[in-house]
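Entry details:
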Amino acid sequence: MDWAQVTSRTDVIEALAPAKINLFLHVGEKRGDGFHDLESLVVFADVGDTLTFAPSPELTLKLDGPFAQALKGESDNLVLRAASALAQHVGRSQAGAAIRLTKQLPVASGIGGGSADAAAVLRGLTRLWALDISWSELRSVAATIGSDVPVCIESKSSWMAGRGERVTIAAALPQMPMLLVNPGVTVSTADVFRALTSRTGLGKVKVNRATPLSLPRDLVAYLKYTANDLQAPALRIAPVIGVVLDELSRMPGVELWRMSGSGATCFALFDEQRSAEMAEVALSHTHPDWWIRATRIGS
C-alpha cells in the first residue's frame, strides 16, 4: 500500500499517517536558530493514524482511537496548525473542514505521530480543497509546522538533513520485518536535546545516498556503523528504554535494535516476519502494559 495515498468515498477524504522510524539519527552542532543539523535515514511502517476530511464552513477536529485522550485539551495541536498553515499559504480566507483523527500511535513517542498527522492533513486538504500544489510546495509548508513534517509528506523511505527540511527519497530499501515497542512513557524532545552530551556529528559516518541497501544484509551492515545520538540522553531521562532495548536484543531472529527519534519507542529489525510476530506475542505476554506492534518497513 502507498501510505502517501489519499482516497475518497463520496465527499469524504481519507488519509493515512504512518509511523516514522529513524533507522539512525546523527546530531550536529547547534545552529544560530537554536536547532541542530541532523542526518537520518527515515522509513515508514505499515501502522499509523487515520484522518478523514469532509466539507465544512468551519475548521473542526474530532478525536477518537486508543490514544485520543492524550491529545484532548491540547492548545497547540499540529493537525489544526497544519490546516491553518495550508489555508494561509494558498490564500484561503479560512480553513474550512471537518477533520476526524483516529489516534492509533502513542503520543510523544519518537515515531512522528504528530508530524505524520500534520503531513496527512496537508495531503488530505489538498484533495478536499482541490488545490493544484506540488510535493515540493507541500514540503515547504510542512517545514513551517515542524522539523519532522516534511519527510512525512510523501511517507517514503528518505534521507533527511538540515533541521529536517532537506528530504531526498531513498533508493529501494528491503521491506524488512520490524517490531515497534513503546513502554508507555512520554519523553520530551526538548529535554532529550538538553541532556545531549556527546554526538556522532555530521559526516563522521559516510552517508552515501548511492550505497545499495536493497538487501536486508546490506541495510543491517550499513546501520551497524551508525547510531541514534539521542538514545543515550533519552535513556538517562527514561531508564525503561534500556529495558526495552535489552528485551529486544534477546528476541530470536533479531538483526538490529535501536531507539527511534527522541524516544521512547524502540524498533527491532528481524530476519523474517514470523520472528517479529513471535516477538510481539512474547513481549505482549511479559509486558501487557507496553504498546507493541509487529510491522515492516514500507516502500
Q: What stands out?
A: The mean pLDDT is 92. The domain at 6-169 is CATH 3.30.230.10 (Ribosomal Protein S5; domain 2).
